[in-house]
Amino acid sequence: MIRMHQFMMSALCCVCLLAAGSVLHASEPDVRTVRPEAGSLVPDSREIPPLPVPVRVADVVGGHVHPALCRTAEGDLLAVYNREGGGGKELLLCRSTDGGKSWTQPAAIPVISDCSIYPGSLATLSDGTVVLHWSCYRREGSRLWRVPQFTRSRDHGRAWEKVRDIPAENLTNYTCLRHPVLEISPTRWVLPLYDRTVLFDVEANQVSPFGDGRNHGMVPLVKTPEGTIISGAPEAAASVPVGQPGIVVRGLRSVDGGKSWQALQAFPRFGVAGYDLNVLENGWIVLTSIIYGIGRDGEWAYELTVSRDDGQTWDRAGAVTVYNPGRPIGGRGWPRTVQIDERTLGTLFYDLNASQPGGPGVFFVRTPLSRFQPKEPAVEP
Hints:
Elements: H1 2-19, E1 34-35, E2 40-41, E3 55-59, E4 68-71, E5 77-81, E6 92-96, E7 107-108, E8 116-124, E9 130-140, E10 143-153, E11 164-165, E12 182-185, E13 188-192, E14 197-201, E15 206-209, E16 221-223, E17 229-231, E18 252-254, E19 262-263, E20 276-279, E21 285-292, E22 299-307, E23 320-323, E24 336-341, E25 344-351, E26 361-368
Antiparallel strand pairs: 1-2, 3-26, 4-5, 5-6, 6-7, 8-9, 9-10, 10-11, 12-13, 13-14, 14-15, 16-17, 17-18, 18-19, 20-21, 21-22, 22-23, 24-25, 25-26
């Protein structure tokens, strides 16, 4: 009971600490550092400016809103989401031309039709092509399955090609993805589907096993400038559907193109909304993760953690909290992060709390990269 009281007191203090420009840290992201005598969160001692207030991108209703985010080769930001999930009828797109400070009114992706939509992901390829993925719920009698689909844009998200199915066989109700494709080339992509991890040859319209053939699950896969692949897999081989864990690895790292993997034992608790991973222009890797409640379910905050050594170690002590409303976050926010420019990151998420000003919505928050500078070692007096 004392621990629960401390945690609830901590949650009430979060807004005040963030308003003062404090960064919340933890040795484990599920457990905030607490001063036992006061029951308050311990702020970071560095002099850093407060985070900007999140910008409302759009209003939503609820369900599988699940936003996706990318930065185009032109520098615009694209956000795609469902207004009302659980089988939405359209995916809506908002664009920002000023680094996420303002957004256009939502417009439907016009090429999608005859689809009860489960949202997917956005990716910008090395040749500037933007790839949008989602899945369509299908039902025939008692059989349920999903059909993964995609479309491409050659003009930075203004016009979209004809929709294509991913030619996977033996589709299940878990043949879906929520993370960007891992680009091997502009026409060869690794798809981290929930029930399989496959290599898709777009020109040949064929799928084949990726790497050693294991299923990573519905997690992010990224490749660093060194050619290293980092997987957000929480266990050595994903179970479908989720359930009792197998061999827990808390992230995987491969230096041979996915033929073999090393357990990282570095990532935090894996919940329903998982993680996001992004490789920055300077070679750092950013993990976007969720801080979950203690003693009660729900998401309480989102934080960013960096690796500066090709994914071998992660600066957990220097993690930066980017959103913490001091209450449970409504829904499963599925936070997504991109690099806006050489100085700034941006994170997109949704919050379905009906009592917040404006009600449920999709939001975007900017984070200065300067907040991730390593701490200077303490100087002995």
